Amino acid sequence: MMIYYISFLLIGIGIYGLLTQKNLFKYLVSLTIIDTAINLFIISIGYINGKDVPIFSKYTKTANFVDPLPQALVLTAIVIGVGTLALGTSLLIRTYEKYSTLDVEEIAQKEAEE
User: Can you tell me where the transmembrane regions are (predicted)?
Assistant: First the structure.
């Protein structure tokens, strides 16, 4: 039950970072924190105390398994999250090369001057 609170706390920290920061890199870090918190929450929902890992063999009973679907979903979400992080990082590099800053207000000011 405590893991749910930790997940929601991390989601809150990520949202707070999105709302209060003006640096694009900190936006990306905040989105990554939210992504990790949601993955943690989905994994914690799929856990059932006293159940076994979902590995089938001829010696195990099928009724004593944890549902493997949340694990598969989170594994897919991790791969997508890494791809999104890589794309965001490349966009940040290009933005920094063009404007020499990652501050949102300075970028808007430089865009207005052009």
Answer: 6-21, 28-49, 69-93
